[in-house]
Design a protein that fits this description.
Helix content of chain A: 40-55%
Distance between the termini of chain A: 79 Å
Number of helices of chain B: 5
Shape of chain A: elongated
Oligomer: heterodimer
Radius of gyration of chain B: 22 Å
Largest sheet of chain B: 5 strands, mixed
Radius of gyration of chain A: 27 Å
Largest interface: A-B, 51 and 47 residues
Structural class of chain A: alpha+beta
Order of helices and strands of chain A: EEHHHHHHEEHHEEHEHEEEHEEEHHEH
Strand content of chain B: 15-25%
Helix content of chain B: 40-55%
C-alpha cells in the first residue's frame, strides 16, 4: 500500500497521481460528450483548466492570508510543494467562481454545459475516493468482514472502495444511457447532470455511514446531511424539469420549398399559426439549386419565430403533418413542396438516437437558414455553444452559398 | 416515467436516505478501542518507540510527553532529506526554549550508519539523532517515502504527516505557533 513516485525533488504520493489521471480521463470524456451534443468543448475545457489553476493558486493564497508569517519567514514557500499548505474550501470557492465568470464571458449556456460535464463529475468523484484509499484518508470503521483492509492499526472497511465501486456503476449507467456518450436520453437539458449529481449524493449518503472519521453535527454526520440536501435539491429540480408547469416555448422554424415556393411558404405559415403563435417572420430568401440537372430552379426559405405549449414530439408531428398535406413525399429530394425544420426548441439541447438533434445542425451550416434567423433575431445565440448569430454567419462563405433576400416589392406581401 | 411513479420513487429515496442518516450513529457507533487509536496518521496517538542515539543513549518518544515533537525520518542518501534538515535546525533554534523537540530518526536498516553519523555531526545539527537499526520503528510508522515528517502534539496526538520536501520552515513554524498560542490560552 501507499506507493510513492519520486520525480527529481518532488515526491508525489500515488494519491496525487490518481487525481491527475482521473481529471485527464474526465476531461477527455467531457470533450467527447461535447462533440456529440454540439456544445463548445474547447471553451468548456479551457474554462475548467483555468478554474483548476485559479483554484490551486486560490487555495495557496487562502492559506498564506491566514498564516502570513510563512511568507515573512521564507518568501519561497509561496511556491513550495506542500499539499497541506492549501486552504481547500477557499481554493474550491475561487475555482468555481473562476469557472462561472469565464463561462459567462464566453456565453456558455448553463444546463447544456453542465450536462457535458457529467462524466467529469463522476470521474473526479471516483478519483478522489481512490486517492483517499491510496493515502489512507477517509478510512473506514473496523470490521470483521473478510474483505477488510489493514489500515491504521485495525482491519477496516475499505469504504473508499465501496464509494468507488458505486461511482463506477453510475458511470456505466451514464455510458449505457447515452450510448457511449453519443446521445442525450431526454428532451430536457440539465437532466443528465441532475441525475448524475443525485447519484453521487446518494452514494455519499450511503457510504459515509462506514467512514470512521465523521464530521459531527447535532449528533449526525455533517457530510451525510449536506449530501442528503443536495440529493433532495436535485430530485426537486428533476421533478420541475420533467413535470413542472409548462411555459410557452419559443421556437425557431425554418421553412423551405422549391415548388410554387412563395405560395407554399405563405400557406404553411398559415397552417403553423393554427397551433403556435407567430411572433416574428423573416423576409423570403432565394437560393439557386446548385445540383447539375436543376439549373434555373430556386428554393425559397424563411424563418419563423413562434411560441407554443406543444411538447417537442407533438410539435414535430404537427410540422410533419403540414409537410405531407403540402404534398411532400418522404425521401424525395428533387421535389420539395414544403420542408419545415425545427431549428431550436427554447433553450434545450438534445441529440436523440432517432436522429433528432436540437438545435438543428443546419443552423450553423446553411446561409439560407442563418440569414433569415439573423434578420428577425439579431441577438440570437446558439443554445448549445452560446455563439452569436452574427459570428455563425461570418463562418459561412458568401461566395459558395449565394442567398438573395427578396425585397418587399418583389414579395408582394 | 409517470409523474406518480417518480414521486413515489423520489420520495422513497429521500425518506430512506434520511432514515439512514439518523440511524448511522446508532448502527455504526464510532468508538475506537485504545489499541486501534495508535497510528501514524493525523488524529491518532503517535506510536511510541525507544531508539539509540549515536552516543548509545536510549530515547523514547514518550520522554517528551507534554512537548510538541517533530519525528523526522531520513537517510544520508536522500537529497530531499538533507535539503530539509537545515530548515529544521532554524526552527529548532527558534522554538527549543518553549519545549519543542526534533527526533531525526536515521533509517539505518537501509543506510550506511557511519556516513549518516558523519553527515549529522559535520553539519552540526543541535537536535537529537536516533537510529532505527531493524526497521521496526519505520514499520510502526508505515514509512513509505523519505523524508517523512510527523508532527506530534503535546498530548501525543499526530497533528500532521508530510512526505517529501513539504516540511518547510514556514509551514512548521505556523503549526508550532498554533500549538503554543492555544497553550497560552488554556
Amino acid at each position: 500500500m501507499f506507493p510513492i513516485i519520486d520525480i527529481g525533488p518532488l515526491a508525489f504520493q500515488a494519491g496525487g497521481m490518481i487525481l491527475i489521471i482521473s481529471l485527464l480521463i474526465g476531461l477527455w470524456l467531457t470533450v467527447r460528450f461535447s462533440a456529440s451534443l454540439g456544445t463548445n468543448g474547447d471553451a468548456i475545457e479551457n474554462n475548467l483548466l483555468i478554474g483548476l489553476m485559479i483554484g490551486i493558486i486560490g487555495a495557496r493564497l487562502g492559506y498564506l492570508i491566514q498564516n502570513p508569517s510563512v511568507v515573512a519567514d521564507n518568501p519561497l514557500s509561496i511556491v513550495s510543494f506542500t499539499p497541506t499548505m492549501l486552504d481547500k474550501p477557499f481554493g474550491l470557492l475561487a475555482g468555481i467562481l473562476a469557472i462561472i465568470i469565464t463561462s459567462q464571458r464566453s456565453h456558455l449556456p448553463l444546463w447544456p454545459t453542465l450536462d457535458t460535464m457529467s462524466p467529469l463529475a463522476v470521474l473526479l468523484f471516483a478519483g478522489v475516493h481512490l486517492a483517499n484509499f491510496a493515502n489512507g484518508n477517509n478510512y473506514g470503521l473496523p470490521t470483521t468482514l473478510p474483505w477488510g483492509v489493514p489500515l491504521w492499526n485495525a482491519i477496516r472497511h475499505p469504504v473508499q472502495i465501496y464509494a468507488l465501486i458505486l461511482a463506477v456503476v453510475l458511470l456505466i449507467w451514464l455510458l449505457v444511457r447515452t450510448r457511449l456518450l453519443k446521445f442525450t436520453y431526454s428532451h430536457h437539458s440539465g437532466l443528465i447532470l441532475l441525475h448524475t449529481v443525485a447519484g453521487l449524493a446518494l452514494i455519499t449518503v450511503l457510504t459515509r455511514a462506514l467512514v470512521a472519521d465523521k464530521a459531527p453535527f447535532l449528533g449526525l454526520d455533517l457530510i451525510q446531511v449536506i449530501a442528503w440536501l443536495i440529493l433532495l435539491a436535485s430530485l426537486i429540480l428533476i421533478f420541475n424539469v420533467q413535470y413542472g408547469k409548462k411555459k410557452p416555448t419559443r421556437i425557431f422554424l425554418s421553412l423551405g420549398s422549391n415548388r410554387n415556393p412563395r405560395e407554399q411558404t405563405y400557406k404553411a405559415s398559415q397552417d403553423i399559426a393554427k397551433f403556435a403563435k407567430i411572433l416574428n417572420r423573416s423576409s423570403l430568401y432565394e437560393t439557386a439549386d446548385v445540383r447539375p440537372n436543376h439549373a434555373g430552379e430556386t428554393y425559397i426559405n424563411r424563418v419563423l419565430e413562434v411560441e407554443t405549449d406543444l411538447s417537442f414530439p407533438d410539435l414535430k408531428e404537427r410540422t410533419k403533418a403540414i409537410e405531407s398535406t403540402h404534398g411532400r413525399e418522404p425521401g424525395d429530394k428533387d421535389d420539395v413542396p414544403m420542408d419545415i425544420d425545427i431549428l431550436t426548441y427554447g433553450s434545450q439541447v438534445f441529440v436523440l438516437p432517432s436522429g433528432t438533434a436540437i438545435p438543428r445542425t443546419g443552423l450553423t451550416e446553411h446561409r439560407y437558414v442563418a440569414m433569415p434567423l439573423a434578420e428577425i433575431a439579431p441577438d440570437f445565440r446558439h443554445p448549445a455553444t452560446g455563439i452569436a448569430i452574427k459570428d455563425i454567419l461570418k463562418q459561412l462563405d458568401e461566395q459558395k452559398q449565394p442567398v438573395r433576400k427578396i425585397t418587399e416589392v418583389e414579395n408582394g406581401t | 416515467m409517470r409523474k406518480t411513479t417518480f414521486l413515489i420513487l423520489a420520495g422513497g429515496v429521500i425518506i430512506a436516505g434520511l432514515a439512514w442518516i439518523i440511524l448511522t450513529p446508532v448502527l455504526f457507533p464510532f468508538a475506537q478501542s485504545s489499541d486501534e487509536a495508535v497510528a501514524a496518521h493525523p488524529g491518532f496517538k503517535a506510536p511510541d518507540f525507544s531508539l539509540e542515539t549515536p552516543a548509545g543513549d536510549i530515547v523514547s518518544l514518550s520522554d517528551y510527553s507534554g512537548q510538541p515533537v517533530l519525528v523526522f525520518l531520513w537517510a544520508s542518501w536522500c537529497p530531499i532529506c538533507k535539503g530539509t534538515m537545515p530548515n529544521l535546525e532554524t526552527v529548532y533554534q527558534d522554538y527549543t526554549d518553549q519545549g519543542f523537540e526534533i527526533l531525526a530518526v536515521d533509517m539505518a536498516f537501509q543506510d550506511t550508519l557511519s556516513t549518516a553519523i558523519d553527515y549529522f555531526e559535520t553539519e552540526g545539527y543541535s537536535y537529537t539523532m536516533l537510529i532505527d537499526r531493524d526497521g521496526q520503528m519505520a514499520q510502526d510508522y508505515q514509512m513509505h517515502g523519505l523524508p517523512t515528517s510527523i508532527l506530534v502534539g503535546p498530548d501525543g496526538t499526530v497533528l500532521d504527516v508530510t512526505i517529501g520536501s513539504g516540511m518547510s520552515a514556514g509551514y512548521l513554524s505556523v503549526q508550532l505557533d498554533q500549538i503554543f498560542t492555544s497553550r497560552e490560552g488554556e
